[in-house]
Amino acid sequence: MNRSSLRFWIGAVLFLAAVVLLTQLIRNEYPFFAGYVILQFIVLAVAWSILGGYAGYVNFGTSAFFGVGVYTAVFLFKATGAPLAVQIAAAAIVGALLGFAVGLVTLRMQGIYFSIATIAMTIIIETTVTNWRYVGGAAGIQLQRPPVMPAFDTYVQMLFFVQALLVVLAVAIARYMQISWMGRGLQALKDDELAAECTGVPTLRLKVTACVISGALMCAAGAPGAMYLQYADPSSAFNLNYSISVLAMSLIGGTAHWIGPVIGAILLGTTQQLLTVTISSEVNVLVLGIMLVLFVVAAPEGLIGLFRRLVRIRTGGRA
Amino acid sequence: MTSPEAPEPLLRIAALTKRFGGFTALDNLSVDIRPGERFGLIGPNGSGKTTLINCISGAFRTEAGTVVFRGEDVTRLPPHLRTRRGIARSFQIPRPFKSMTVAENLMVAIDFATAANDFVPVAQRREAMMSILTQTGLASKADVSTTRLSQVELRKMELARAMATRPKLLISDEAMAGLSGAEVDEVLDLLMTLAGHDITVIMIEHIMQAVMRFSDRVMCLDAGRIIAIGVPDEVMANPRVQEAYLGT
User: Fold this and answer.
1) pLDDT grade, residue B117 (50/70/90)?
2) Measured between alpha carbons, how far is B197 from B177 in angstroms, rounded to an integer?
3) A192–B112 CB contact, under 8 Å
């Protein structure tokens, strides 16, 4: 293991330790309730950037994957009473399969056509779930949480920890993909797909792999959502806001490095939580839109790009 | 190789046809490229030269006919698998990986084009990359972003990247178009040195002195058909070639 990997894993362990410590120290449940959402967005944004950032395929189907994760958990819980870990693992598998199917069908399309196909997919899946009686149909479904694991005081604290674990998993995978041979291949196909293919890069296989991993992580991030709200309904589980927020977080953070979507998700997720509490949940959509416009115009490479440009200016223009 | 007269061809194109809608870009075209040959491909604009290259490298699917490379039918293989079997190309309009440096462009080729089962350590791969950069005169540009290269440097980078895939067949698609006289010589000299060492080169070019100097054999296409093939002087003297070029 080289030094940078060592530092990364020490950071990950410290982060998880801090999360556990917080759940032991803070009695008030609200910080965990809000923090869970931010962690969930980190996983989604990091997962999105694997396909959207590294490969440059803009996926508007985040809400489809997220919703499928929620409903995989709902279905398993209702049918078998499966524990949370099983719900998440199953959601990841379903997400991987969905990513594979979507990838094979749509990744031959390029640019805007791929994006439109992912929106279509969201609508198809949402409509299907809306008409599926067993999981509650359009009216939604109430769920009763099982007893919490002994290490935690409340179920929400436990979910907070579980989502923190998913953050570490997602970031570790995204980081590996960035620094490995896969990252270089994805970057090449993002720059020029035909040139990449003619240089020996198996573009379709790499894109489908990215779609599978991205889909699995998004579904896994959605799975605990059912237990978090103790309720699920199609219009909120498949809400297009997930797709847009996640896209905004990744782009505002910057997709050239795995830390970009993490920063974007923390920044926007926190802002959204604050606005929801202090003003209204509608204003945060407006703020999201304004920030996205500002960044697309002023810093198209996101905060990462802005930071790199500053460093370059300070070091005197060397690349 | 069986005999000096008829060696096993490196590349055999048999009855290749490519249509775009109702337009036939390549019409029942057959040609053998011998190993070690320097092969010039000429023809007026729209005669099907680049289409032929796209069919050889796999960028286009063909309607009929076969492409056999080193005894293996590669007609249905995607481009990256053909690259791994030893077919490399440059593009008429350079297509660098813009977000990368010159060195990184070559590393994509080195990482992906060699068979996955023979693992080569990083230091050795970098060494291979640097030796190609030195050979192509780009060593000083290794860490420069490809967006900062001049036109002639871009052409060289494309050839270097193609070389980094360790090809048996290198296809150069108008690598000299739009360059100045001195630059043309530079790129031509480079292609001359690359050819030989067990690398066969197909060169598409409009610049006739370059084609004449470079080629062992020249093929002239017009409207998707071969109108002449042979040693350069013969092909140039062919009335049909002169007609196709001068439009008399």
Assistant:
1) low
2) 25
3) no
Closest-CA distance, A2 to chain B, in angstroms, reads: 14
Interchain CB distance below 8 Å, B97 and A197: no
In degrees rounded to 5, what are phi and psi of residue A209? -60, -45
CA A146 and chain centroid, separation: 26
pLDDT for the residue numbered A283: 81
Report the residue from A184, A194, A202 with minimal CB separation from B108.
A184
In a domain, A249, yes or no: no
- Neighboring chain A residues of B57 at a CB cutoff of 8 Å: 198
| pLDDT band per the 50, 70, 90 thresholds, residue B52 | very high
Q: Are strands B38-42 and B217-222 parallel, antiparallel or unpaired?
A: parallel
CATH code for the domain defined by B11-98+169-246: 3.40.50.300
Per-residue pLDDT, averaged over B90-118, amounts to 87
- Does A225 reside within a domain? yes
- What distance in Å separates the CA atoms of residue A273 and residue A41, rounded to the nearest whole number? 12
Q: Are A188 and B143 in contact (CB < 8 Å)?
A: no
Chain B: residue whose CA lies nearest to A192: B97
- In the sheet that holds B200-204, the strands lie side by side as B87-89, B169-173, B200-204, B38-42, B217-222, B225-230
| Of the candidates A192, A310, A201, the residue with the CA atom closest to the CA atom of residue A254 | A310
Q: With respect to residue A228, please indicate whether it lies within any of the assigned structural domains.
A: yes
**pLDDT digit string, tens, across residues B171-215:** 999 989 888 889 999 999 999 988 876 899 999 998 888 899 999
The domains of chain B are located at 11-98+169-246
Q: What is the pTM of this model?
A: 0.89
Q: Does a structural domain hold residue A184?
A: yes
Residue A198: list chain B partners with CB under 8 A: 57-59, 79-80, 83, 88-89, 91
Written as six digits, the tokens of A25 are: 């120290």
A202 with B57: Cβ contact below 8 A:
no
- Which residues of A fall within a CB distance of 8 Å from B92? none
Tally of domains in chain A: 1
Per-residue pLDDT at A105: 83
Which residues, at least 6 apart from A227, have a Cβ–Cβ distance to it below 8 Å? A73, A77, A84, A87, A143, A145, A155, A159
ipTM score: 0.89
Domain that holds residue A212: 3-239
E strand residue ranges, chain A: 141-142, 231-232
Name the stretches of chain A with pLDDT < 50: 318-319
CA nearest B204: which of B38, B42, B10?
Answer: B42
